Amino acid sequence: MADDIGLEVEERPKYTVVRASGYIDISTSPHLREKILEVAATGPSLLLLDLGSIEFLDSSALGVILNGWKMLQAEGSTLAVISPQPRITTIFEIPALN
After folding, report:
1. pTM for the model
2. Beta bridge partners of 22
3. What tens digit of pLDDT does each residue of 24-82 get?
């Protein structure tokens, strides 16, 4: 896959949005992990991961998202995935993570 991922952060009063675009695969998932850790360090009570502009997501990305969710849960926060396209939603449904 392409080594192309875009990550934008929008901080709001009650939550933080991380908008991802492009491809999240084995080569780009470390960038997503770093961004989740960076945002988590600011202490948001809710982190929304917007996957509406993701073209491809593989199991390494799923692992990063799940680990981020577990980490935030342990800190009393929440990570929620929003706006996934149907083909991306399917990746969450297969292991029953929806």
Report:
1. 0.89
2. 5, 54
3. 999 999 999 999 999 999 999 999 999 999 999 998 999 999 999 999 999 999 999 99
